[in-house]
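Re: your question from the hallway

Yes, I did run it. Sequences:
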Amino acid sequence: MKILDYYLMSINNIKGNKKAFFRNSVLIGISLSILILSSITTDSINNVLEKNIKNNLSYRSIYVSNYEEIDQKTFIKNIEEIEHVAKAIPQEAYSTNIDIDSIDGEKLSGALSLIGSNNDISPQIIAGRKIEENEKNVCIVPKKFQLQNLEDSTKDNEIIDGEELLNKEIEIVYYNYDYSNEYPQKINTIKEKFRVVGVYDQEINMGEYYECYINFEDILEIKNEITKNSNYISKFDPILAIVDNSENLETVMNSLKELGYNVLLRSIPNTKLIDIIESVCTVLSICTIIIALSSIIINVIKTAEERKYELGLLKAFGYNKRNLWYSVIMESVITAIIGFILSCIFVFLVVVILYLVLQNANSELRKIEFIIEYNAFLYSLFMSLIISIFGSVFASYNIVNKATVIKNIKK
Amino acid sequence: MSYEMILNKANKIFKNGDKKIYALNNVSITIKNGLFYAIMGHSGAGKSTLIQILGLLDSLSSGELYINGKNIQDLSENEKSYIRMEQIGFIFQSFYLNPKLKAIENVMLPMYINSKIKNSDRNFKAMELLKKFGLEKRINHYPRELSGGEQQRVAIVRALANDPNFILADEPTGNLDEENEEIVFNELKKLTKEGKTVIVVTHNDIVKKYADKILYMDNGVIKEEL
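Structure:
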């Protein structure tokens, strides 16, 4: 008996047991869909998180404090000597919020967030170049550039294409304050121009539309200028250690601790929700697989009485055990493949609907990119075959293997 | 080649606690080619056991069974399955047609394991057989759409699917009216004219009109052979 014969016979049997076949295929389809969707959900969320950590400076920055009498320069030098530390900076050199005066000569009102950068510590550039070491008054802007807190919301609220700003100048404005009175008084207005040398993708970087990068030294100078009349001095202010790669965070943290420093991550990605989603997806997948498996076994056992005499008859016609097993297994394989195809269709529809929903959602949700791991499909096809074959073999074992022809055909 | 079945000093014993029940008691018969055999007797006489033994659906407790010269006791389960497929066709009292398959699909079921019938020929052969038995208009009907007589004729066609030499029928007219009883026995008689051997277990006296040999059984023993 050839495979084609088993196939034809199975198709015949399936035709005769349409309801059970449909029920089993749908059950397998649903459980596999949940399995594949779980994989897509967790992979997509992990992808967002990974981008967050890898590309965003904040997630690879560590506050390092030291309460011993040691000057800041030595402290910074000590930290920079640690392997995987790309740069150590006073915390005020990390970033500052600043008002904007004009872009390419056109007066605008709004604010920017300026973040420190250099050739080693830079967002991924999509046009132009990075900021060189000691290069002053240059900046990198987001691809979709939009000022914060705009007063005139009609024109200025538009998103500017960052690439169009390349080689143009952005003018910022900040002030000196007199801190001698009860409330600080503006005493001097300082304007400073920055030439746009690079553009980054704020979505890949998980950044905001108003985040620009300038040299660390520039940030420090702006901060010093703003606070120069203030009497505030703290030699115990923490230093920010920026790690070369988020994967090395743990190693650097341990090295800093070994040196006796107090360490604290600047930002901790909230993975709790992701962990919960992952656990829920896993539990859901396992539950549906168990439900599918038990339902298939229950269904097959339920119809076993009918099949008992069918298989008994086949034995009477001369079918041997091998013929019967192959035919049972062939039916299971067909059920599994149909279940798998149903799950693919269902997953495709869900992904398309979700994609359309996310495209029309807010900017944060638009950052989610569907990661479809094709191994998940192979894995689910394998699972589907296992569930179906195991279910059928388990339920048919006694009928095929043990019962005699007479026992089987006597209703 | 002469097709025959030989049962020699055959015993089939069932145990009920410590008590032994002889369903077949030292039975010796020779079933010859091309004849219509009727096995008759009251309930519990051992008729059905005899037909199950001859059809290799059950095995002997002792004694020998030869089919076309082969000692069945020496054969494996797979070899017995092969002989069932090639040499024996079964007809049952309750027809045992698969209710979810059409007449033609029921007839094709035994053909799948017969490598001598090509895939492409199955359908044609099943159709030809159904036509031969006057069922050409019932080819695509499900068993529930057929009368009792038609269902039993489909079952006869199915028994002939692999062109066996022996047709074993266990009370084939038990569920039929008189008119259909005659039709079925008539069809079975026709088969013997084609060289097939028909063995029928029945209570029905009408069979005497058709049978070439009648075996009366009582308590597992063949009492009389006519």
